């Protein structure tokens, strides 16, 4: 048994240790431990999502081998508060049910909106209950070999894994398979593993300067990322209002960077376009549309997305030496109103293009031809039937859909006019799927 005085001494010693650790904790926790890397990760973590899904892979090692189901995983970054997310195409390709988990743990089912095979980038969307935090994007135009970078992603299924390294080289060309070749990649020695694909590569300021895309199999310390400037340019195409809303603005321009700060410069304006009619001129710097501050073309598409035809949108540009101009841009449909393009988008929620005959024959299908789905409108009849980008529409009701003329005929038929669900047939991975699709309230003129 200890002497009472010993207990008092022990208690005093514990109190001194606790007090000293608290004092040390204040210094190390807020100053020494809060390194630039920690701050960078904390600043961007809520705009990074984890992606899971199942996909079917064909095994060609022997005749008769059955396709097998594998677990897919990857990462994505939020580029618009309405739930639009950029990731790699190979992360979501062939995935029937794309599961997206936010940083705080909520899981949603995402819809594939569009993709670009050349750059291996895809745009997906979730229907979140509240606006989501958007990733802070820097520029890849001023990167330096040797500078510190941070990779964040769903490595091997371990969510929100963080690794660091340096930029090893720039402008790499990488052949990863017989069919996939990447150009102008960032090389880094930050650990990039399966599951990191689609996640951000950050600079020390916490800005996204690339999207992680590939690793060199069998090598250590060699990973690659798509430059952020390329990602933003492709994202603006995938998210364009012409693709998603059948609207247009008519602005052609480029993003310029001065001391790492982006600004969007108008190079030309299409004649009789909404931008032209509003007074936008070549040489203008677009600064604001509605409530959105504009730095890149993606900001223009984001600001004009989901607007109504005929809606006036406030538009600000800088012209000359600090001369700011305010104007109104009136939203217009692209092309002649009431054609099959508008009808397919409004009635069904799809955009299509004809599959070349030689390419279609390679499917070894019993069908004579089809129309490839190039875009699916969020929450449209097509989206509700889980039709997705890349599917090939081969028939509706009792008619083939070999050409756009076939589709136009169907959309003008009495079957559509009756507003009853109509049977559709699609090809996906050489398999035929069918269902009954309702039509939206739209009249084809």
From TrEMBL:
All copies of domain PDZ, residue ranges: 266-321
Alphabetical list of InterPro entries matching this protein: Chloro_Bact_Ser_Proteases, PDZ, PDZ_sf, Peptidase_S1_PA, Peptidase_S1_PA_chymotrypsin, Peptidase_S1C
Domain of life: Bacteria
Signal sequence coordinates: 1-23
Gene3D superfamilies: 2.30.42.10, Trypsin-like serine proteases
Record-level Gene Ontology MF annotations: serine-type endopeptidase activity
GO biological processes: proteolysis
Protein keywords: Hydrolase, Protease, Signal
Family: Belongs to the peptidase S1C family.
Identification of the protein by name: Putative serine protease HhoB
